[in-house]
Amino acid sequence: MRDLLLRGVRLIDPFQGLDLPSCDLLLSGGTVVKVAPQIGAERGVVVIRKEGSVVVPAFLDLHCHLREPGQPWKERVANATAAAAAGGFGAICAMANLHPAVDTVPRLRQVLSKNRSLGRIPILQFAACTAGLQGQDPVELDELLRAGAVGLSDDGRNAMSGELLATMLARLDPHGVPLGVHPEDERVLAMANEWASGDPAAWMTRPPQAEETAVEDALEAARRTGSGNLHLQHLTTARSAELVRQAKAEGMPVTAEVTPHHLALDSFLDAPEPGALALTCNPPLRTRADRQALWEALLDGTIDAIASDHAPHEAATDPGQPTAAGFSGVQAALSVVLTLPGAMANLPRVVAALTTGPRAALRRSSAGVPGHGVVEGMAAHLTWIDPLARWTPDGDSWLSGGANTPFWHQELPGQVLATFSRGRTVFLNHVLDGSLEVD
Ligand SMILES: [Zn+2]
After folding, report:
1. Is the pLDDT of residue 317 over 70?
2. Is 155 helix (H, G, I), strand (E, B) or coil?
3. Which domains does the chain possess?
4. Which one is catalytic: 155, 185, 304, 309?
5. Distance, CA 392 to ligand 1 centroid (Å)?
């Protein structure tokens, strides 16, 4: 990595509680050498000033779906992590619903080794809670955690009984690592499906009650066992946010995440371009009132983290048909959040929800997770963004293997200029000085 002097950047660092309106930052040999109001440039240093640009700790994504092993045609690990780096992420968490699911130690070892050799940035792997995510047979959690899983989650499914969830929460509690719950009650989904008799409208077949019942049940299980490791994934409704707010007011150490798309888009009617109507996601997009409540819950700290729920898919073979559910979300996560009114005014909170928030949700696992503040003498693990510059997800800019985003061809705010992960340059935007190179 060449020596780089960033002039006049705003530094937002939730790890240190800092928001400096303007400073210079010198990076050398992958290390943050100096942060000061003004730094003299030595010979050979690349000096760049970008008006209005901001340096933040590198983001951490709590929720990504990688596709290897099982569905490499949807996206390779190399593409997913290149897209994540381009989105400002210095590390990501991967869910266990691969094919086969990550539910045994040999499978975990295989995935960890693949992730290490193919990932441009560190990938933290979740293991399943139950064999095949079927909700019946608990995994060998002690062995899986010893082998390197950062937490457990059957994400994609929610087939465990309340009884089994309580048991798993209690067994996991001494380890201090998260148990992620995909809160959609499958009994409610089945009833809704039957009632809608196959109607493809996702809001009918996946009603808000399915989520709210699951959130209530999960909170009840955590309350009953007194365990402190429940993490609620991708909340979508006002009522869910309110349930978490009440639980936190009681002193429960629950954490929760929200996706950029559930914050920014109202049901299908609000899709930014006609082609996006063919895209669906689970859980579905909700009402404007829901997303406003989610945004308020993020701002007041009820919701701890923004997580992409990155779910790349190939294009539908028949253009009239929707593709599989989910959005390729990791590259545009920050940008989508910056489309929200008030996001710029609340930039420090948005940055916290992408850095310290997700770390807190990982509980004790975060000790081994790369990520820290922008501190002199420490490895550069940081992201440099121009929040007002605009870019467009298209064939030139998009690095993910899946183009299934409702924001395709829509101009978005928030350009990531460069991402550094553990001292390595993992992304450089082409708008920068050509004398810099990716490591
Ligand atoms: Zn999920």
Report:
1. no
2. coil
3. 4-55+375-428 (2.30.40.10), 58-368 (3.20.20.140)
4. 309
5. 27
